[in-house]
Automatic annotation (TrEMBL), chains A, B:
Cofactor: FAD
Protein name: Putative acyl-CoA dehydrogenase AidB
GO function term, MF aspect, one: flavin adenine dinucleotide binding
Positions of the Acyl-CoA oxidase/dehydrogenase middle domain: 160-270
Species of provenance: Thalassovita mediterranea
Length: 594, 594
């Protein structure tokens, strides 16, 4: 079974986003609709045949630390070998480093199949691609040749090493230190000492080498250690050094997680001996800026993973609901009449449709964001590219958080539809929930995303990016206003978006600057719903034009759009009220009173 | 550490519910405030010392089926032996069967400590008490002496056997059959054959015997098998027969759960051989009615367990938030300034206060319901008792569901506050979530509770019970209207309650009868919030009168009440709108379109 509907992905990519038009651009000129579709089909097949089969066993047999080495389930390595063999590590990379140079929107859609089939196994290539892209964009040629290209081939895997036990979200407080040790063929060389926490893929025996990207305090050009984030640089620290010897990097312990268990997660000690050898990427003090290239990609990928998990739960609980007979329609009093499938019960319908709205809405959101990545790279002119960049910046915290937050709501419904069976490990849905629960935490918690959205992305540029979003929404509502079935939704969306903008303006006029972020989470959640509603209206517009040969898809999209607008979107009103009024019902309470 | 604040329980029981007044009633005349407090303190100590220590190990070492017998962690048996020794199995039973004859509200508060410390271990006495109460109320003397009294002593444990693999919520469709076999000292005897699913405590080696209460189809007085639920009777089926031989009951398999793992959960086969021997309780055809005595108690106990889990997550995440330094106040740009405890961050405050509102609100709801049980049994006159019975009937689906639904919201916050640590099994909060996730499923799913609330409890008596609730709320709002700090909340609550009643009336005027239950879940959730807001206003009124020696408790209650009214209660508006308008955005969609 496909956990993500190929028909729906085709609708999103071709009917809605018209990805074939990208092949008219030079960067994607080697491709065609056929090559896109071939990649998508191959991904779906491979995900089903190699990633899905060890979903449960990788959960039951989590990574173990044996004699200082991490052992993972062999099926994970086997699946990733096939993934590498088929070239998927290379899918989104430029040809000059051995990549397939696919548009981001296509490679993301392909990757969604792998995330849905086995999120924990998919995390290895997700991290590897992000790591290699930092090296390709900011590393010197030797660094690219030595550590990026083998990742594009899938021979080396990558990690990102930011957090420390005492510094999670607060990177200014990291203690890892890098001491300069001259330079060599690979750039400026350092000795690094420190402890890094929450390192996914931090050790394993799957890949030939592991490429760690490490944030560390380091002196500037003048030998001075700058305070806070200005004093942080980025280093490439391979597990195996170019001369074939082991670097001074050791696994200090494994974290035993609620879910996502196939992805090993470690505490790593850098420099228990003389110091791990690392080479600086970019300039001193640029560490956080460079790492955020990887982080921003990772945040979109977190959204993709969460959307994929929502989709899988939807697909599996729908299948269960269609097959499980239980009870009878309201008013049918004859106990000898046949039972109906539970999908016909109103409460189950509500939970199925809610999942469909979340899963397909989140997938649309993530793919739209991925299409902005392509626009930033290959847009027609500088203005177009700058506009896409501003919009993606604004949407990144939403793309990370909305699927993470509501994907769990969807997964909760998937469990509930299964009843007692959904609570057992004999079925998949409880694991889907557990796997997905990481997504609101890693790569910046929900609270961090809220402050990024409201503080940096909305207020930071005085609403410029928000204005661009407004223009894009207005294009959609103008088209929808001309379609009788969609006109009311268009008006509603305009109203909610304008309310959201007004709420932010009122907040800025009302609140003490130190208290502007008190309801940042409400802003993130409200605009997440508004953006998702917008993309549902986009889907409805596209679906509306489909002919009767695709009536099931068309009418399903229209019904789900209506559901989202009537049942979900109005929740925004109360959130915006809290935001607008600078509600301090929580923030004003002294913590002594808890 | 106490997972539930003794200070808060004392506030709820003494300051608010004034339980000492119960000792003026004949039934509780042997007790005093001192004996109540001694029981509560003993429960808190015992829960901490014997239930809490094996919380994690019972999760990691779940029950196993070895040679047809179920093995559980020895620490569970040890804890329950101490629990029995201290008389807790007997706490809520009348003296004539060896009970302590405590008020339900006091024994429930004591039991909350055990649920918080280890919900899965607490499930054994919870089921045992419910089972014994059915026997005490409906069994004959021989049945009481043989199977109820040893449960009151904690020597035998009890189960409830309702569901079958093909019949979960739909009990009319059970297939288990009982064939009459004359009568003996224990009553009318039958041979029973069938398979029962989801049997918590279905087998174990902890107790001397296991008393199964089994729903089964059985012929009526005239030997005719009535169709549907009219043909169902209730049977007591002991694992070990009175003559010391094994009954024909076998474990067919264990369910491996997401959480709640210390409670063994089985598929039981009754009558693989000649048929299990069982004795009928009550009259033929009364099965469901009698079992619902146990079920109604179990539903309140589910709410209690969910409230206790919410409370534990609140307590533990608050402790973590107070101790974990991370980041700095907004506007503090000096990276060398000390980090603040995360409890000071606005987003963490919101999650802590939300948990406090849910945990203490749910505990108030459950204890209020338990106080109605006492009122039904010992109220001054028949009218008082009938009124309490109607009110408890109305509140039971809310008491079961609201703590279950929002306890998970609270637990989700508890994980989020812990960040990455909260996602690991090294901390407790992910397990608390997993344990608690069962509560919206068992003893009637959320969807079933919604239909029970709106269909049976509100519409079934033409609003009579709802009117009683309205009168009780009006008493509270009249008092609160006289307190300036609470007057606006009183007006808000009145408004929401009236809106809720009006929504139901409008729905009945508008909707096709077959579609009346389409938004039953919205009704349940909305009235859950309204009832919880009412009980928060009750708590605020009580707290408002406390003097400065209890300022921390007083001001914390007032702040949390304000939070609930400003942040939570307004969500009801949209739910009532969906209800009132008979929204069919989900129900009208053909399931083919999913």
């Amino acid at each position: 079974m496909d956990f993500i509907s190929r028909e729906d992905l085709s609708f999103l990519l071709h009917d809605w986003l018209n990805v074939s038009a990208l092949t008219e651009r030079e960067a994607f000129g080697e491709h065609s609709r056929d090559t896109f579709d071939a990649v998508l089909d191959l991904a779906a097949d491979l995900a089903r045949d190699t990633f899905a089969p060890h979903y449960k066993s990788a959960d039951a047999n989590e990574p173990r630390l044996v004699d200082g080495k991490v052992e993972t389930l062999p099926a994970i390595a086997e699946a990733l070998a096939t993934y590498a063999e088929m070239g998927f590590f290379a899918s989104s990379f430029p040809e000059e480093v051995g990549g397939m140079q696919l548009p981001s929107v296509v490679s993301s859609a392909a990757f969604a199949h792998f995330c849905a089939a086995n999120l924990a196994t998919a995390a290895y290539p997700m991290l590897t691609a992000g790591n290699a892209r930092v090296l390709v964009e900011f590393g010197n040629q030797a660094q690219i040749d030595t550590w990026a290209k083998p990742q594009v081939e899938g021979r080396y895997f990558g990690t990102m090493c930011l957090s420390e036990p005492q510094a999670g979200s607060s990177l200014a407080d990291i203690r890892t230190k890098a001491v300069p040790e001259g330079s060599d063929d690979f750039g400026d060389r350092y000795r690094i000492k420190g402890n890094k926490m929450w390192i996914s893929g931090g050790d394993q025996q799957i890949s030939e080498n592991i490429v760690h990207l490490v944030l560390s305090k380091a002196p500037d050009e003048n030998g001075v250690q700058q305070p806070g984030i200005k004093g942080i640089s980025l280093f490439v620290v391979p597990k195996i050094l170019p001369d074939g010897t082991r670097n001074d990097v050791a696994v200090a312990g494994l974290n035993h997680k609620m879910g996502y268990r196939g992805t090993v997660n470690c505490l790593l000690n850098f420099g228990e001996g003389e110091g791990a050898i690392g080479w600086r990427i970019g300039q001193p003090g640029q560490g956080l800026a460079l790492m955020f290239q990887m982080m921003n990609e990772a945040r979109i990928m977190v959204g993709l993973g969460a959307a994929a998990m929502a989709y899988r739960g939807f697909t599996q609980s729908l299948e269960y609901a269609r097959e499980r007979p239980q009870g009878r329609p309201l008013g049918q009093k004859d106990p000898n009449s046949p039972m109906t499938a539970i999908v016909e019960h109103a409460d189950v319908k509500r939970m199925v449709l809610s999942q469909k709205a979340i899963a397909e809405g989140a997938m649309a959101l993530v793919l739209y964001s991925a299409s902005l990545v392509d626009e930033i790279k290959t847009g027609a002119d500088a203005a177009t590219r700058a506009r896409a960049e501003a919009l993606l910046g604004l949407l990144t915290p939403i793309t990370k958080s909305w699927p993470s937050e509501f994907g769990l709501v969807a997964n909760d419904h998937a469990i509930q539809i299964h009843g007692g069976y959904g609570y057992t490990r004999e079925y998949d849905v409880e694991q889907i929930y557990r796997d997905n629960r990481l997504n609101p935490i890693h790569e910046g918690t929900y609270g961090i995303q809220g402050m990024d959205f409201l503080g940096r992305k909305v207020m930071g540029d005085k609403g410029a990016a928000l204005a661009i979003l407004g223009e894009e929404i207005a294009k959609t509502t103008a088209r929808a206003a001309a379609v009788p079935a969609l006109a009311k939704m268009a008006a509603d969306l305009t109203g909610y978006f304008n309310d959201g903008c007004a709420a932010i303006t009122e907040l800025q006029g009302r609140a003490d600057p130190a208290r502007l972020m008190d309801n940042a989470g409400q802003a993130l959640s409200a605009f997440g719903h508004i953006v998702t509603a917008w993309l549902w209206l986009e889907q409805a517009l596209t679906a509306h034009d489909l002919d009767d040969s695709r009536a099931r898809l068309r009418d399903g999209k229209l019904a789900t759009c209506r559901f989202f607008f009537e049942v979900e979107l109005p929740k925004v009103s109360h959130q915006l009220h809290l935001l607008r009024s600078a509600n301090d019902a929580a923030a004003a309470v002294s913590s002594d009173l808890f």
